[in-house]
Amino acid sequence: MPRGNTSVSNIVREIVESDPCLVEALSNGYVNYSKLSERLAEVIREEYGVSCTPSSIKMSLLRSRSSVARQSLKSRIFRVLARSSIELKTGLAIVTYDYTVLHKVFKSVHELAGRTRFISISQGIDNITIIVNTELLDDLVGLMDKEPVWLERDVSAIIIVSPIENIETPGFISYITTLLARKGINILQIMSAHSDTIIVIDRKDSVEAFKTLESIILKAKEDSKEPLK
What we know:
Elements lengths: L7 H10 L2 H9 L4 H16 L5 H10 L1 H4 L3 H11 L2 E14 L3 H11 L6 E5 L3 E7 L3 H8 L5 E12 L10 H11 L4 E7 L2 E7 H22 L5
Antiparallel strand pairs: 1-3, 1-4, 2-3, 4-6, 5-6
GO molecular function, one term: kinase activity
Protein name: Conserved archaeal protein, aspartokinase domain protein
InterPro entries: ACT-like_dom_sf (IPR045865), ACT_dom (IPR002912), CASTOR_ACT_dom (IPR027795), UCP014439_ACT (IPR016619)
């Protein structure tokens, strides 16, 4: 859990927001506040080293009831994460071209398709971006015969494969990017294609980014009691 701000109210909020079952219980009003406050006081003392009383915890919980009611959205996000899998692809490169060479991009990618272990294309308003394994980058640039707008070698991609409900769950992408932002991890590119969310990051951030997202997915699976994929 984040430990940057050690005020009791902030710690209580972090604990609540990281536990979808607790959010659901608070939202539906079937929580024994006194018992919960006693338990949270123990957790905060043991895990955060912050001295607090059950009464101060209870006050924080009561003050946050209105915001907790809105946390049902986070529960929806966790239900999607509980049914998601995650993988890390390394040794990639990302290159962006002006949209005027769109036809050449598709022709070049078609020629490389049988030789690459990973390839992804996304089109913006003014440009088109390709992610490909590094060993084929020079071949791609040679086939394009044009200077790219932007090129970055040695990047990694985290791929989260989720049920189709992910595209109908507000805040799903935002929640993932916020987790990475809190760790100071910069996202070079992010794409969502049906059930896949592809996050491109610098190689140096790849291990921490993967662990961060994997841990929240494992927590969601554990809380939902669904088997690991």
